[in-house]
Amino acid sequence: QSFADFNDLSWIWLTGRAVRLSTNVQDDRWVIVNKRQVGFYRVNYDVRNWYLIIDALVQNWASVHRLNRAQLLDDSFELARSNRLDMEVCLDLMEYLRDELEYPPWT
């Protein structure tokens, strides 16, 4: 699991409309920003990270906090709707929902 401590709510000040973050994370590790959806902003990832997150959810959806699972779904659809993310990523992300047991991701 990558950065799976969803209790560490470190802050980054957003000083503009968009922020690009660079990480020191291995290529086979996923990263989730806006843990537990404490900030009021959308998060888009590179396609590789989206699919690493999708794979993690399919293998063990509980490895990602329920509020982030909801955020990932909401962000992916809004980003796709605004042509900032390929809709295929959203549809692939939805595949994990067949096993989802908690309410927030369904709202």
UniProtKB/TrEMBL annotation:
Gene3D superfamilies: 1.25.50.20, 2.60.40.1910. Residues 30-107 form the ERAP1-like C-terminal domain. Signal peptide: none annotated. It holds the Pfam family ERAP1_C. GO terms for cellular component: cytoplasm; extracellular space; membrane. Keywords: Aminopeptidase, Hydrolase, Protease. GO terms for biological process: peptide catabolic process; proteolysis. The keyword Hydrolase applies. One of its GO terms (molecular function) is zinc ion binding. It comes from the Eukaryota. Belongs to the peptidase M1 family. This is Aminopeptidase N. It comes from Culex pipiens. The lineage of its organism: Eukaryota, Metazoa, Ecdysozoa, Arthropoda, Hexapoda.
